[in-house]
Design goal:
The protein is built from three helices and ten strands. The strands form two sheets. Strands 9-8-7-6-2-3-1-10 form an eight-stranded mixed β-sheet, with helices on one face. A two-stranded antiparallel sheet has the order 4-5. With 163 residues, the chain is α/β, with parallel strands linked by helices. The chain has helices spanning 3-8, 44-57, 118-124; strands at 41-43, 63-69, 72-77, 83-84, 89-90, 102-109, 130-135, 143-146, 152-153, 156-158. The protein starts with a helix and ends in a 5-residue tail after the last strand. The longest helix is centred in the N-terminal third of the chain and has 14 residues, at 44-57.
């Protein structure tokens, strides 16, 4: 399919079904299992630290990076030079360590709405794949997780550290 076809042709009326595909080299092709996200959980202590940082910085926003091990967010990484204000957080990603375990960011909203702004959406698309927003009153129920396209994702809160 060429570039023109991708943008200007209408998609086929009925998508190809996985069951109708021809097996390759004797392998059977069946329904595709849903793919698990790279990050699927967050440790309860990390949620508590996020809430404490939100309360300590209120009414200003704060920001930090997220570190994950084996699909579980285990740590907040404070970024040097981060500036938090009443309606913004400036985080210079050039100050982050070169670390493949960094998976995204967390920041607070002093309002009770953990909904990404346009600036949040733009930032999400440039760094990491899992982003958290915690809002006032900064507790275990006032945060939401988003992917790099700012679509909500569900993270399980766990008590056990990854081994």
């Amino acid at each position: 399919m060429g570039l023109f076809d991708r943008f200007f042709r209408k998609p086929p009326a009925e998508p190809t079904k996985v069951d109708a595909l021809v097996p390759a080299k004797g392998r059977e092709i069946g329904p595709v299992a849903p793919r698990r996200r790279k990050v699927h959980s967050i440790h309860r202590e990390v949620v508590d630290v996020m809430a404490q940082m939100g309360r300590a910085n209120h009414p200003r926003e704060y920001g930090a990076a997220l570190r994950a091990e084996k699909g579980v967010i285990t740590e907040l990484v404070l970024v040097p030079g981060t500036i938090g204000g009443g309606s913004h957080t400036f985080m210079n990603t050039w100050h982050l360590p070169v670390d493949p375990s960094l998976v995204g960011t967390v920041h607070s909203h002093p309002s009770p709405y953990p909904i990404p702004s346009d600036a949040d959406r733009q930032f999400f698309s440039h760094f990491g794949h899992t982003h958290l927003i915690i809002a006032y009153p900064y507790n275990a129920y006032s945060w939401r997780a988003y992917d790099l396209t700012a679509e909500p994702v569900k993270l399980e809160v766990v008590d056990q550290w990854p081994s």
